[in-house]
Specification:
- It is a single chain.
- The protein is an alpha+beta fold and 85 residues long.
- It has one domain (4-68): Ubiquitin-like (UB roll) (Roll), CATH 3.10.20.
- The chain has 1 helix and 3 strands; from the N terminus they run βββα.
- The protein has a 3-stranded antiparallel β-sheet.
- Bound molecules: zinc ion.
- Zinc ion binds at residues 15, 17-18, 20, 48, 50-51, 53.
- Zinc ion (ZN) binds next to loops.
């Protein structure tokens, strides 16, 4: 698909590690908020097609920062099961 309005933020960008193409994806991001883990959903990220490295736009990082510093109220709270090997 082509055309200015439909271009994603990451279109044409290359991965700084492997030079692979970066595609825009909506991801869920586990982050530590205070002493608890929280899942931040629907985060727009640029994901490298080749190595999977994720990139976040500055405004997205700022929003994540706001959330992880507890300045935004959670939509809902779920308990999270944690496993370790
Ligand atoms: Zn890469």
């Amino acid at each position: 698909m082509r055309g200015g309005a439909t271009m994603g933020f990451w279109d044409g960008e290359r991965c700084e590690y492997c030079r692979g193409f970066i595609v825009e994806k909506i991801v869920d991001l586990p982050r530590k908020v205070g002493r608890k883990y929280a899942l931040i959903k629907n985060v727009p990220a640029g994901v490298c097609k080749d190595c999977g490295t994720r990139y976040y736009a500055a405004n997205v990082l700022k929003t994540i920062d706001t959330i992880t510093h507890g300045r935004r109220k959670a939509e809902r709270e779920i308990s999270m099961a944690v496993y370790s090997l």
